[in-house]
Every structure is written in C-alpha cells, then in structure tokens.
C-alpha cells in the first residue's frame, strides 16, 4: 500500500510517496523506492536512525551536516561538468527528525547494481564488458579523488546503473589534503585493502584497491579474497593471497595487478590508473540487456 511520507515541505517541494522495496528493514536503516509528488520523479528514500548518524560539518546557514550529506553536497557543487558522465548519486533533499535522518536521492530508471548484474549474468563477464565498466568506475573514483572524497566502501553493491553512479556515502569522509591518512577499519571485507584490514595508515589509494578487486570479481564471478568467514577473508587480504585467473588476457591481468599487486601505499591513485584504462577499455557506454531485472535502491543502503 502506498503511504504518504509525512515530512515538512521545503523549498524543493519534495513531498514524497514511498513504496517499500528491497529489504525495508536493515541493520543501519531502511530504503524505499518512491516518486516525488511535484513532478513524479523517481527517488530513493533512505532512513537512517539517529544512532547511526555521524555529524561532521555545518552549512552556510549554520545547519549541522552529516558526513554523508556533506560529502554528497561537495561532490554536487563540483560536478557541474559531469552531466552524462560517471558521477555520484545526487542528493535531492534531506530531513532531520528526532529519531532519524531521511535522505531523498536520485533513482535512475532503469537501474541495476553491479552485484545483481553479475549475478543475473549467470557467468563471469566478458573482458570487453568488464573493461568498459571499470573504465567508468575509474572515471567516477577519479572524480572522488579530485574532490578529496574518500569513499571507503567501493564495491559492486554500491554501484548503481550502467552509466556508472556511485552510491552509499555513509562511510565516506572529506579529506583536508589529498595525502591525508586514516586508520579506521571500515568497509566490506572482500573489497578493503590490507592497510584498512590492519588499521594501518591509508588514504585515497584504498578506493583504487577496491577497483582491482571488482575487476577480478567481474571476470571470475567472485571477489579475489572470498572465503566462508570474515576472519579468513581478512587474512587473505593482508597476505595478498589470491589466484590470478589464467583464462583472461595478459592485459586484463595487468589491470587487476596494477591496483592490487603492490602495497596500497605504493599503489596507483585513480588519476595514475586512468590513462591505462583509457588505452585498453572501449569507450562506449555499456547497455543493460532487456532481460535483466532492475534493482532500484539496493546500492544506496548501508
């Protein structure tokens, strides 16, 4: 049953209808698919309990901002030339209540997160498909790095739409300097770097490590360090213990090795990896097959 979302109308006119979709109750909040009443624009509505909200900044009016909101606003401010290119999911509005914060986000239609896309494909992607997706991902991560945004949870589930959109900035942080380092262990075990896993100094390069893990997963159908337990997975991450697929080309192997082979402190940043991707990946935008079922908001939940 469609229910009105009871929020105060702001200047954006963003009164929302919401429809529960895709695990409306999750550990860190809830996500709904809906439509903006003013113009029927498809939106995703993310509910975050106040206990999971981290405050970091204030806007020009003195209003407190969460890490997620501040990061997305900064990206949007500096993304005027990114229309039609790889870009972050847009934040349309947000609301603060006593018990929760609500984010109203862009919802591309049709859309599919990369995890579901690979699963629906029922077999590893062809190299040309994987390279095209990775090219767009490098574009997107390069944009984050250029804006000093450290995402910290790059993984297939957080990549929405085949014209790549990065979602879920709940773990992101704004860096004061490009070489700023952090020591917090956060993210998804299959895609974090050794430095993150050991709580050692790490920065923007860790997002690039995640790209190498994703490229491997596209070609093999599973992440490189995947095991039955988090402890064993983290052990393999720290040791760099993964098998290079022998059926892929040397060029594809290099694109896996390049961000992952060295310690992250010596690993490429996205701008350094960027020319290599452009020299090897096709320039066309990858199209989703009509038979695939769209996943609307799965990639923008905690």
TrEMBL record:
<dbReference type="GO" id="GO:0005634">
    <property type="term" value="C:nucleus"/>
</dbReference>
<dbReference type="Pfam" id="PF00069">
    <property type="entry name" value="Pkinase"/>
</dbReference>
<dbReference type="GO" id="GO:0004672">
    <property type="term" value="F:protein kinase activity"/>
</dbReference>
<dbReference type="InterPro" id="IPR000719">
    <property type="entry name" value="Prot_kinase_dom"/>
</dbReference>
<feature type="domain" description="Protein kinase">
    <location>
        <begin position="17"/>
        <end position="277"/>
    </location>
</feature>
<protein>
    <recommendedName>
        <fullName>Serine/threonine-protein kinase SAK</fullName>
    </recommendedName>
</protein>
<dbReference type="InterPro" id="IPR011009">
    <property type="entry name" value="Kinase-like_dom_sf"/>
</dbReference>
<dbReference type="GO" id="GO:0005524">
    <property type="term" value="F:ATP binding"/>
</dbReference>
């Amino acid at each position: 049953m469609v229910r009105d979302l009871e929020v105060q109308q702001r200047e954006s006119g963003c009164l929302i209808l919401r429809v529960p979709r895709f695990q409306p109750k999750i550990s860190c909040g809830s996500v709904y698919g809906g439509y903006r009443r003013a113009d029927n624009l498809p939106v995703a509505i993310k509910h975050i309990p106040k206990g999971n909200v981290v405050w970091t900044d204030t806007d020009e009016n003195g209003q407190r901002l969460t890490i997620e909101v501040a990061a997305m606003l900064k990206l949007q401010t500096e993304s005027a030339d990114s229309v039609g290119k790889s870009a972050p999911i847009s934040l349309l509005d947000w609301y603060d209540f006593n018990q929760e914060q609500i984010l109203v986000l862009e919802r591309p239609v049709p859309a599919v997160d990369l995890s579901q896309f690979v699963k629906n494909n029922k077999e590893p992607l062809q190299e040309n498909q994987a390279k095209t997706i990775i090219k767009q991902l490098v574009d997107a991560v390069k944009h984050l790095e250029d804006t000093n945004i450290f995402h910290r949870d790059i993984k297939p589930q957080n990549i929405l739409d085949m014209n790549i959109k990065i979602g879920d900035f709940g773990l992101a942080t704004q860096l004061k300097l490009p070489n700023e380092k952090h020591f917090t262990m956060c993210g998804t075990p299959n895609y974090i770097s050794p430095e993150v896993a050991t709580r050692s100094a790490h920065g923007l390069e860790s997002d690039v490590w995640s790209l190498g893990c994703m490229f491997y997963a596209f070609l093999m159908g599973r992440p490189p360090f995947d095991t039955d337990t988090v402890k064993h997975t983290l052990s393999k991450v720290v040791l760099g213990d993964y098998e290079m697929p022998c059926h892929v080309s040397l060029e594809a192997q290099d694109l896996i090795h390049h961000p992952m082979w060295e310690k992250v402190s010596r690993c490429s940043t996205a701008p350094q990896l960027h020319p290599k991707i452009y020299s090897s990946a096709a320039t066309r935008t990858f199209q989703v097959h009509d038979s695939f079922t769209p996943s609307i908001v799965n990639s923008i939940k905690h």
